[in-house]
Amino acid sequence: MKTIHEQHFLSGKYIIVAGGGIGGLTFCVALQRFLENNNQEINPPPHIVVYERELSLDDIGREGYSLSIRSDPLSGGMQILQKLDLLDQILGESNPGTYFTVFNNDFTPLIEFQSPPVEGLSQSTASIARSKLREILHKNISPSIAVHWNHGIESVEELENGQVIVTLMNGHQEKCDLLIAADGSNSKGRRAIRSQNELRFAGAVSIAARTQPLEKLPPPIDKTWGSVLGVNGNFLFVAPSDQRSALWSVSYLSDKPSEPRPAGTMSEEEIEQVLSEAHQRLVSFGEPMPTLFKKTLRSSVSVFNAKDMEPFRNHGSVIFIGDAQHAMSPFAGNGANMAMMDGYKLAEQMILAKHLSTAVQAYDDLCIPRSINAIKMSHRTIAIGHSQGIWKYMWVTMLKIVAYFFGFNSKSEQ
């Protein structure tokens, strides 16, 4: 094995990764993979620690979420998993269905987005529970990397010598040489040192939940997942959250954000109020939505606002990735892909570059344009999904054009 000369800027450095989610764990896996694949080692190696706010790997939090992993030019998540030698593991745990559908409110398909085959990939799109993806990433990080659960980062301070002081939620402080801030859209590190970069309301409010385990997934979500164009401005998303349960989310446009209500924080009376509103908004949707609604797991009900944030360039010893750098609303349908791409590309540039500043600049050059495009796409999705009357069908026509432009195989209802 070839040893990278001791002057490599990562040699002997103490690196803290804030966030044990998709982006942070991908960075950890990718850093080790690049060294192994190039038959290299850094001597002495960097010491890496991950601090995660959630209580454990199994914490319920967002773990009912279903993620779409894609191979199209805007995403590239499938290719990243293949490069990390994780694709087969992911496909073994993936949900039913290999393509995305836009439905009418009676669940007749309007457009089926089937990504064209990609050389070297057994399939070009997959859906997987966030919990399963994170579990696989966690299982594949180096044994030398410690992951500390229930240890969220509360604040960050950059010192004049380039080091970083990190204060944890229990009050403990640590000094590190480099902080990878992958702690999501509400990043405490960003609030501390990049307060000018704030989340903005994207104009839509969502009520979401997942079902109890079902005997079997009802059609059509036993074969696909997707968005449902409704009436009266209500927009629905449905997808398997695992092999036997499903996720649903109904959204509507609003001039101002609603009070966020995370799952597990509401009283029974508040849950009933939210479900009553959801039922009114879902009344125009045909099966399988009535069945899924009846099987809703009450403890999973949540209300959230679509928010995003334009990406910014990194500088100094705190490097932001994923939603901490370019927050995306769920309407982007691309957050997991972007997080994996960020973690992978940052690790790649850090191994290849001779200086931290060079690595970070190269990473930002790759990250910022694609995240800007993804955020723009999310705004179009919000406009399409909540459109009414003739505008709805004009947007469907535009979707077909977009599908053709990006190389999707688009099958429309005859």
Automatic annotation (TrEMBL):
GO MF, one example: monooxygenase activity
SUPFAM superfamilies attached to this UniProt entry: FAD/NAD(P)-binding domain (SSF51905)
Residues in coiled coil: none
Domain of life, per lineage: Eukaryota
Gene3D superfamilies documented for this protein: FAD/NAD(P)-binding domain (3.50.50.60)
The FAD-binding domain, residue ranges: 77-358
Transmembrane parts of this sequence: 12-35
Keywords of the record: FAD, Flavoprotein, Membrane, Monooxygenase, Oxidoreductase, Transmembrane, Transmembrane helix
Database matches in InterPro entries: FAD-bd, FAD/NAD-bd_sf
Protein name listed in UniProt: FAD-binding domain-containing protein
Organism: Rotaria socialis
